[in-house]
Amino acid sequence: MMFSFTSFSRCQRLVNNPILTLLRNFHKEPIPVTWEKPEIGWTKLNFDGSCKGRAGKGSIGGIFRNHKAEFVLGYAESIGKTTSTIAELAALRRGLDLVLENGWNDVWLEGDAKTLVDIIVEKRQVRCAEVQRHVSDIISIIPEFDNCIVTHIYREGNRAADKLAQLGHQSQKPQIWRQIPPHQVLQIMHEDAEGKIVFRRR
């Protein structure tokens, strides 16, 4: 049987029908997301970048926790006009600076920008020169640690870092918290430590 262009067009409209797409997505099972503690002796960094508005106002944030999910250090900072990609990379780069300053050697780096995590893990080249500069800088630092893993987590498991990145938008100057976290992340930290499952809709 011949498949005419008219039939093809009708099929395309059916495939691209927004109502059918919504129904398909509605019936997909949600993904359970849980923040995981690092191993004993390891320090885990969750980082995030944020970019808001037409002006592209950027900020960064990150949180370090130990194997008991206890707060070790947090940071937040406004970084001016930028893109979301650069903000994510800047958040990780600032975190790495703090790792070096504190002499931690077994570190777990985790963010919710999957494409960037993949680029760093696979040491891929990218076309944008500014992005490549940040990526190359990060890749050059990682071998300085005894052990380092870089992983992706969905945003639902990166809520503490996201909250700190949001605080960065409100900061007039770079902020660092040691031992005592800002009250805005206390509830999230408690839920993370308890292993709370947050469901992500596909």
TrEMBL record:
In alphabetical order, the GO MF annotations are: nucleic acid binding; RNA-DNA hybrid ribonuclease activity
- InterPro entries attached to this UniProt entry: RNase_H-like, RNase_H-like_dom_plant, RNaseH-like_sf, RNaseH_domain, RNaseH_sf
Matching Pfam families = RVT_3 (PF13456)
Residue ranges constituting the RNase H type-1 domain according to the UniProt record: 39-170
User: What sections of the sequence does the record tag as coiled-coil?
Assistant: none
The protein's name is: RNase H type-1 domain-containing protein
